[in-house]
Amino acid sequence: MHVPRALRSIVAVASVGAALLASPAWSATPAAGTVPKPTAPTGATRSPDSGPAVHHDTSPPLRELWQRSRSFRSTPQVVPRGKASRPPLARAGGRDRIRLGVNFEGIREGGGTPPDPNASVGSRQLVEITNFELAVYSKSGATLLGPLTTQTLFKGFGGPCETAQADFLGDPEVRWDSLAHRWVISQFASDDGTTTNRLCVAVSRTEDATGRYYRYAYGYRNLPDHPKFAVWPDAYYMNATAAGPLFESCAWDRTRMLRGADADQQCFDVPAATIPIGSDLDGTTPPPRGGAPNLLINLGPTHDSLQYWRFHADWKNHSRTTLAGPFRLRVAPYTPACASTDPTQCVPQAGTTQKLDSLSYSPMYRFAYRNFGDHESLVVNHAVDARGGVGVRWYELGLRNGRPVVRQQNTYAPDSTYRWMGSAAMNGNGDIALGYSQSSSRTRPSIRITGRLANDPPNLMTFRETTVWTGAGSQTGSNRWGDYTSMAIDPVDDCTFWYTNQYQPADGTGNWNTRIASFRLSGCHAHSRLHGHG
User: Fold this and answer.
1) Considering Cα of 212, then 115, then 230, then 522, what sign does the dihedral take?
2) What per-residue string of b and e applies to 511-528 under the rule 16 or more CB within 10 Å gives b?
3) Which neighbouring-strand residues pair with 463?
4) Pick from 105, 84, 80, 88: which is nearest to 447 by CA?
5) 450 close to 412: Cβ distance less than 8 angstroms
6) pLDDT digits 0-9 by tens, 503-525
7) What is the pTM of this model?
8) What is the CA radius of gyration of the chain?
9) 3-state secondary structure of 222
10) Could you give the residue ranges of the DSSP H alpha helices within 45-158?
C-alpha cells in the first residue's frame, strides 16, 4: 500500500507481537520423523472470513479492456538519467561480475510511494505490476500492453476491485504458476479501509497475459494489508495483516480457480510479530509428498532464530485443514537493521537527510521453493546490521521429514554501504541469485545483484557485486522504499533470472522508475543435478 498507514500498522503489530511472542507461545523444532502439532498458546483460530468468494466472473480479454479504457499512458521514450556502467567491484566474491542480458525501463511514476515493484516471467511474456499499474512485455523488452491501471483488469467486475480510490488500493503481486502455465495477479481493495475489504485475484485462462482472466473477490473483516500470496500445488496461500497483533493466513482453492468455478478460501487468525510469507514454487516438479503443507516463514522473536508454520488445506473436508506452529529454527545470530535506533528511518542517501525504511522487521519476498528430486531447497532473506552499514542476510533451507533445516547462510555485506530490500531465488541448476537496493550517505539508491553457483564453497555469494542501474536521485519526501522487489526464474530454460526493482532518476518523491534485467550465472542445464549438497 502506498500510504504510510500501511506499514505503520506492521510496525504496531511488531511491537505488540514481540511481547506476545516473548512468552512460551511456540515450540521447539520437532524431532526428526515426527509431525509438528500446533501448541495451545499459539492462539491460532479459524477465521470467519473462510468461505466462498464474494464474487467471481470471467473477464473479456485484457487487451480489449485496455483499449476501452483511457487510464493508460505510453512508456517513456527518453532514457532517464542514470547509468549501467561497471561499478567499483566489491572485494567479496572470487568470480567476475555478472553479465546482464536484457536491461530495460519498466513502469515509471505509476502513482504512490512506495511503488511495490514486482514482476514474473512466463513462457513468452513478462508481466510487471506496481501501485497502481501493470504492463506486459516481450522477453526482449518490447512493450506489448500498457502500462495500464491495475483496476483495468477488473473493469466491469463491480465492487471495490473496480471502484476503490487510490488510498485503498494496492500491494499488488503477479506470479507465473509454473505447474499450470497461468498468470495470477492479486491486490487489495477497500471502500474505506474498514467495512468492505477485498483481495482481488485474477487467474489467466491461458499463457497469454493479454487475454481473458477468471476474476475473484475474497472478503475480509479487516483490511488485508501487505498481502503476499504463494503458488503451491493444492492452493494459492496468502498471508496479510489483520487486527491487532494478528496476521491472517488463507488458502484459496487453486484447482477451482484454474477453471473459473466458484472457489472457497480457508483462513486462520494467528498471533505473530510480523507477517510471514509462504513457500512459493519454482520449476515444474511439485513437492514429493502428496499434499505437502505450505511452509510459512517469519523472523523469530529472538535474533538467533526464524519461526515457521505448516499450512495444509483439505478441500474435501474443511475440518481437516490444519495450521501447525509456530516452530523454531535456529540460525546464526543477527541484529535487524537499525533495530537500536529506528528501522523505518534507517538507510541514508546522498544529498538529503531523508532516510529510508529498512523493513528489517519482516522476511523479504519471495520464500522461493524448488524440488530437485533428491532434495528440496528454499531461499529467503532479510536486512541486518553489518560492517557499520546494512547487509542482506540470506538463507538456503532444506527440508528433512518436512521440517526446515539450515543448509547454508550468510550476510552479504562486502563493505559498509547499505544493502536492503532483497529478493532471492534458485534456478534449476541450483544457482542462487540475490538482488537488492543499495544506498549510502555518499551514493544514491541503486539496483545491484550478486550470486553463487550450485557447487561453490558454501555460505558465500561468489560473484562480484554487479550494478543493474545507478540511480541519479534520492527520495527526498518519504521514508517508504520498496516495499518489495522480485527475483523470478524463466520457465523456458529454468535457468535465467529476471530481477525487478526501483530507482530515482532525480531527487524527489513519487518520481520513481523501475528497471527490469535478466542474467544467467551458468549454462542452462536445468535438472542436471549440479546442486551437490543434500
Assistant:
1) positive
2) bbbbbbbbbbbbeeebee
3) 95
4) 84
5) yes
6) 999 999 999 999 999 999 998 86
7) 0.89
8) 21
9) coil
10) 62-68
